[in-house]
Amino acid sequence: MLKSNGRRNTKQRQAVLAAVRELGNHPTAEQVYEVVRKQLPGTSISTVYRNLGILSEQGMLRTVTGLGREVHYDHNTGVHSHVKCSSCGRICDVMLRREDMPRLTEEWLCGYILEGISINFIGKCPECAEREEIR
Amino acid sequence: MLKSNGRRNTKQRQAVLAAVRELGNHPTAEQVYEVVRKQLPGTSISTVYRNLGILSEQGMLRTVTGLGREVHYDHNTGVHSHVKCSSCGRICDVMLRREDMPRLTEEWLCGYILEGISINFIGKCPECAEREEIR
DNA sequence: TAATATATTAGGAATAGTTCCTATTACTGA
DNA sequence: TCAGTAATAGGAACTATTCCTAATATATTA
């Protein structure tokens, strides 16, 4: 819970979390902002960024980086990867399990103590593949 | 070769490629710029960016994204991954081979036609791990 | 070697995404 | 209900990168 960390439960924070969950498909900060503004018109983009950061820090959201310039936010905080369409940018979950992850030897990691693995796929989504083939 | 694509072989372009090779450890555009300026003081940062782009396009360099906000450039264009230190930012090659890659089923990929996989590791390099433990 | 066509350049403006700053507001616990 | 302080709006600042334009340099051709 937020309060245990000295955080307050403001309506802006609630709206940001709700927007990420409602949008579902890995929205960017800008997309969250659009939705939040409908409910709380006065909300500023910096408030959205601040709350996305705090909610991620508290483990209520997950940040998804490495899929382009923008950071995406995911309400699904479990272990999984993503595939992004190189045409339309749509992002889809890839349910890699631990045993499907690459097997690593210590020597490959140059002595680094591993903290995280990020696996991103890029491809063409079915819709874009079809549309682009027709032309 | 560059010329077969209507490209010219300018001294700035040569210097950019040489700098990436010389630096070795996955430099950013800014780091390449620093080195190039020593040899060709008048060179502008936009020339560095343009040439990094062209050289990557020609397959003479590889761009490494997903390790942070900046793009890194790699003179090693073969198949491999990277591990980045969460403290000092140092990047090291990880020699994952194809058979160590995750095995994917079509269903996981939501029907996307796969174009690329990017696997990034984050960790603590031996030096940072030791230094931070002492304190 | 000289002339020509055009790819490339320097320099700076512009852009996108994000973070930072400050005075004001509004939660929360007492 | 009040005090303490986390959070806010609004905008400035920042960072990495791309875009623009007139001038320059390279490669081809004569």
How would you characterize this protein structure?
2 copies of one chain form a homodimer. Chain A has 135 residues and is an alpha+beta fold. Chain A has 2 domains: 3-73, Arc Repressor Mutant, subunit A (Orthogonal Bundle); 79-134, 2-Layer Sandwich (Dna Ligase, domain 1), CATH 3.30.1490. Helices cover 34% and strands 20% of the residues of chain A. Chain A contains 4 helices and 5 strands. Chain A has a 3-stranded mixed beta sheet. A two-stranded antiparallel ribbon of chain A has the order 1-2. The mean pLDDT of chain A is 92. β5 (113-124) of chain A pairs antiparallel with β5 of chain B. Chain A binds a DNA duplex (30 and 30 nucleotides) through residues 3, 6-10, 12-13, 28-30, 42-47, 49-51, 69-71.
Quaternary: homodimer
Strand count, sense and barrel status of the largest sheet of chain A are:
3 strands, mixed
On the 0-100 scale, what is the average pLDDT of chain A?
Answer: 92
Count every helix of chain A, treating DSSP H or I runs of 4 or more residues as helices.
4
**Secondary-structure-derived class of chain A:** alpha+beta
What value does the Rg of chain A take, in angstroms?
A: 18 Å
CATH fold call of the largest domain in chain A: Arc Repressor Mutant, subunit A
Order of helices and strands of chain A: HHHEEEEEH
- What is the second-level CATH architecture of the largest domain in chain A? Orthogonal Bundle
Morphology call of chain A: flat
Identify the strand order in the major beta sheet of chain A: 4-3-5
User: What's the name of the CATH homologous superfamily of the largest domain in chain A?
Assistant: Winged helix-like DNA-binding domain superfamily/Winged helix DNA-binding domain
- How many distinct beta strands of chain A? 5
Helix content of chain A: 25-40%
Largest interface: A-B, 36 and 36 residues
- The number of distinct structural domains of chain A comes to 2
Q: Report the uncertain regions of chain A.
A: none
Give the termini separation of chain A. Answer: 52 Å
